[in-house]
Design brief:
The chain has 208 residues and is an alpha/beta fold. The chain is built from 6 helices and 10 strands; from the N terminus they run ααβαβαββαββββαββ. The chain has a single domain, classed as Vaccinia Virus protein VP39 (Rossmann fold, 3-Layer(aba) Sandwich), CATH 3.40.50. Strands 3-2-1-4-5-10-9 form a 7-stranded mixed beta sheet, sandwiched between helices. A 3-stranded antiparallel beta sheet has the order 6-7-8, with no helix packed on it. Helix 4 links the parallel strand 2 and strand 3. It starts with a helix and ends in a 5-residue tail after the last strand. It binds S-adenosylmethionine (SAM).
Length: 208
């Protein structure tokens, strides 16, 4: 929803480099040698963290401004400038898991459903999809300019997620929910302590 916003943002600053608490949580659920696809990696702070811990990372973001700054000659993380919605069945890399932090809320409803469908298409059985995103219980919900349902624009647009909708959507694409938590205290940044939905979904069946 916000490509020009993110390009402008990353041309001014790259943002904090420290890994998120979500990445630390996820690292405990995967194994050294696994390969993970990160959607919407931003400045790559979680990608570098996973790579430093023996995970092969394929990390993509739509913003050429950020990817050009962090890419280098790295093969791990391997950064790719790409719209995640353009991933298709010819996706070139073999992965065990998918990861999206603060990304599903950066997509409108149809796009987020497509992202989940893509994950379901490219993940192997038993692969995890990990996601953390802002919930409708977040204090920013309702602030700014109301657009579509649950989408509000302040400095940029965010679509706040409903926990049960997300669970049902993942289940309908062949995922089994192993862990879900909707809480504040998980993604604190400066004076922002949003209620987020943190979810681990394991792919349990193929959808035709
Ligand atoms: C809120 S930032 C989160 C960055 C990073 N995951 C983190 O937690 O620090 C959202 C990121 O998703 C990227 N993004 C949004 N829509 C995208 C799309 N359709 N394809 C690829 N990246 C996208 C944006 O460019 C931005 O870098």
């Amino acid at each position: 929803m916000n490509k020009s916003y993110w390009n402008k943002y990353y041309s001014k600053k790259l943002g904090i480099k420290e890994q998120t608490s979500f990445a630390i949580h996820v690292l405990n659920m995967i194994s050294t040698g696994d390969a993970i696809l990160e959607l919407g990696c931003g400045n790559g702070r979680d990608s570098f963290f996973f790579a430093d811990h023996g995970i092969q990372v394929y990390a993509l973001d739509q913003s050429e401004i950020v990817i050009n700054q962090i890419k280098g000659d790295n093969i791990n993380p391997r950064f790719i400038c790409k719209d995640l919605l353009s991933i298709n069945e010819n996706f070139a890399y073999e992965i065990n898991h998918g990861y999206a932090r603060f990304v599903l809320h950066a997509l409108n409803k149809a796009e987020a459903e497509k992202a989940i469908a893509i994950m379901s298409m490219i993940l192997p059985i038993n692969g995890y999809f990990f996601s953390e995103s802002r919930s409708i219980k977040s204090s920013l919900y309702g602030k700014g300019h109301a657009l579509e349902q649950d989408i509000y624009e302040t400095d940029h647009k965010r679509r706040f997620l409903r926990k049960n909708d997300l669970i049902h959507q993942l289940e309908s694409y062949g995922f089994t929910i192993e862990n879900v938590i909707e809480s504040d205290g998980l993604a604190i940044y400066q004076d922002d302590d949003p209620v987020v939905i943190r979810i681990s979904a394991r792919k349990s069946s193929n959808i035709q």
